[in-house]
Design brief:
Oligomer: single chain
Order of helices and strands: HHHH
Number of strands: 0
Helix content: 40-55%
Distance between the termini: 38 Å
Mean pLDDT: 81
Largest sheet: none
Length: 123
């Protein structure tokens, strides 16, 4: 088993979890209807908890993702082409509200559009 697959062997495993880990745990816990305090975990434990929650059945299908952890305007890769997932989210939600989908967007613009469409769709 590689060290990447074994968080307990990470040299930073005892450090506090990252903001991204804490945000992801909170979102997953909400969708699984479980209570988890991500601040009580270290980085290694947070990684294991994320894997555990990802594998658990979803109990709350109406749970929504939280706000972005970082401000898209400060992303160093914000002008890069939007990811496939971002464009997919935009396409699904835009269709739901009857809007057209731009053929290309940057990562920052796509993230902002996703937030805008989440408000319109209630997703």
């Amino acid at each position: 088993m590689s060290q990447l697959n074994n968080p307990s062997q990470w040299t930073t495993g005892a450090d506090a979890p990252t903001d991204k880990q804490k945000g992801f745990i909170s979102t997953l816990a909400s969708s699984k209807n479980v209570s988890v305090d991500p601040n009580s975990l270290n980085k290694s434990e947070a990684s294991a908890k994320i894997n555990e929650l990802k594998d658990a059945p979803t109990q709350n299908a109406d749970a929504t993702a939280g706000q972005p952890i970082q401000n898209p305007d400060t992303w160093t890769t914000g002008d890069d082409k939007a990811t496939g997932k971002q464009m997919g989210y935009v396409a699904v939600m835009a269709k739901k509200v009857g809007e057209s989908v731009p053929s290309e967007m940057g990562k920052t613009d796509a993230s902002k559009k996703i937030e805008e469409l989440k408000e319109k769709t209630g997703m």
